[in-house]
Amino acid sequence: MPVVPGLHALRDVFVNLYYAAAVPEQPHGPWVLIDAGLPGSADKIKAHAEEAFGPANAPSAIVMTHAHFDHAGSLDELLKLWPDVPVYAHPLELPYLTGRSGYPPPDPTVGGGLMAYMSFVYPKHPYDLGDRVHPLPEDGSVPGLPGWRWLHTPGHTPGHVSFFREEGRVLVAGDAFTTVKGESAIATITQHQEVHGPPAYFTPDWNSARVSVAQLVSLVPEVGATGHGIPMYGELLREQLAHLAVYFNSIARPKIGRYVHQPAVADADGVRAVPPPLVSPLIKTLAIAGTVLAAVGLLLASKKRRKEPYRAWYRDRPARPRAYRP
């Protein structure tokens, strides 16, 4: 899916990754991959790259907004397919890409949707890319993408970054904010478009997340391409993003949750401390089971309702004489 000239999006089930051309006017020239999708998606990602930039044209770099499983899941496989391609991330994100630390545990109690309730089973292990991963340049430049710069937008993760191109005011925001309610499975399936805060169940620092959204508003973006949801443009994007920034604590920040009042603590070596969970794993499991059973019950009830009118008509219809059969 083209976002703007020189920037393509690939939706990998429920997460987006992006292909950025170094020179938009050269579609088969150098390019950079932004994020790496879900585990098991490497072949699909490479196939789309060949469609967009031609065969035997590996990216000059892979740059990461952050390293959650849905954004970094195929890195190991991609680095085998592209053995000379380096990976770049913020220094505070490196512990999760070099095997030194896992992320803070998710909080399934926030968000109020199936994607949130299921978050305690999502992969949280770190990736170990060894010397293939490097810190992003301190000057804010993006390797392989002249005209782009990175901005530190923490909150969703300690080292989360967003990428911005001044020409066209194009923003690739990762999960600093989204354009779909990421906690809801229904919204994710339908891709109902609306600016929302970062996915709540994976956000361990709400104060930093609020500041990051305000920072992105100040860019006055014309294009907003996020990790979840369909890209948004123009005044609609700016109005909804500004509304999110002003009312962040009331519309994005949960009222109750593990990290609402006390963030996880992390540094360049990874996670140092996390607040205690609000509910036990058993209660979370029961909540998931109840949600699934409720969904199945609604589906069965819906099917029954659709059949009942026919059954009533069949039962009450006038008897018809049977045709004679010798």
From TrEMBL:
Membrane-crossing residue ranges in chain numbering: 282-301
InterPro entries in UniProt: Metallo-B-lactamas, NDM-1-like, RibonucZ/Hydroxyglut_hydro
Secretion signal, residue range per the UniProt entry: none
Domain Metallo-beta-lactamase residue range list: 14-228
Keywords linked to the UniProt accession: Hydrolase, Membrane, Transmembrane, Transmembrane helix
GO molecular function: hydrolase activity
Superkingdom per UniProt: Bacteria
Keyword match Transmembrane: yes
A Pfam short name: Lactamase_B
Gene3D superfamilies (alphabetical): Ribonuclease Z/Hydroxyacylglutathione hydrolase-like
Stated name of the protein: MBL fold metallo-hydrolase
Organism: Hymenobacter setariae
Source organism phylogeny: Bacteria, Pseudomonadati, Bacteroidota, Cytophagia, Cytophagales
